[in-house]
Design a protein that fits this description.
Blueprint (H helix, E strand, L loop, with lengths): L1 E3 L9 H15 L4 E3 L4 H13 L4 E5 L11 E4 L3 H4 L15 H13 L4 E4 L4 H18 L8 E4 L10 H10 L10 E4 L2 H8 L6
Parallel strand pairs: 1-5, 2-3, 3-4, 5-6, 6-7
Length: 203
């Protein structure tokens, strides 16, 4: 399960707490958590929640920056050694990737998850992750029979455009294909987020 969201936020804040609790619920159900490795409600909070609940969390790092202290595993996306583990002798495995390719590798690792939880208050990075999810659902996954769910976790006191406001805007722009919409759900609580991505949510 991949968690995506803001790189800011701290303990005691609404979205941080909700993302941490969602990861904890999923971890207690035996789900491994993946994040972008760094701080805030989108990355540190899920790692904290998962590990405190006795689960595991992998963080994908890049540009030489270490991940947060709650990760049980870190994967460095800066070198081909991590990016192309299955390829041998094609190129020196320790060749450093460009910043752009490393960014793409990190995003690609997150998108390999079965499902996604997006936290409210995310900014442009989270927007890129969400729209890439939508794009792959429309152009690749659904055509191959792959159905990946996304929960947009928007607690009542969260701020910003995430939630139905954002989805409505994307509809108006033609950015949210009809065939993808049934797999996206705006939820207000950690339990509903966890239930939605685990297919046990009933509206």
């Amino acid at each position: 399960m991949a968690f995506c969201g803001s790189g800011s936020g701290k303990k005691g804040e609404v979205v941080y707490g909700a993302m941490s609790e969602t990861a904890a619920i999923l971890a207690m159900r035996g789900i491994h958590i993946y994040t972008g490795a760094y701080g805030g409600s989108g990355m540190e909070a899920p790692a904290l929640g998962a590990t405190e609940a006795g689960g595991t969390c992998t963080g994908f790092t890049l540009w030489g920056m270490p991940g947060n202290d709650f990760l049980t595993k870190q994967v460095n996306c800066d070198t081909l050694q991590q990016f192309l583990l299955s390829r041998k002798n094609a190129i020196n495995s320790n060749t450093k990737l460009s910043d752009e390719v490393a960014f793409g590798a990190r995003l690609g690792h997150l998108l390999e998850a079965d499902d996604f939880v997006f936290g409210a208050e995310g900014s442009q990075g989270t927007g890129v992750e969400f729209l890439t999810y939508v794009n792959l659902m429309a152009k690749r996954w659904l055509k191959n029979g792959i159905e990946k769910r996304a929960a947009l976790l928007c607690p009542p006191d969260s701020k910003g455009p995430w939630g139905e406001t954002m989805l409505s805007t994307f509809r108006g722009w033609g950015w949210l294909p009809q065939e993808v919409e049934p797999f996206i759900r705006v939820v207000e609580t950690p339990l509903r987020a966890a239930d939605w991505v685990m297919r046990s949510f009933h509206q």
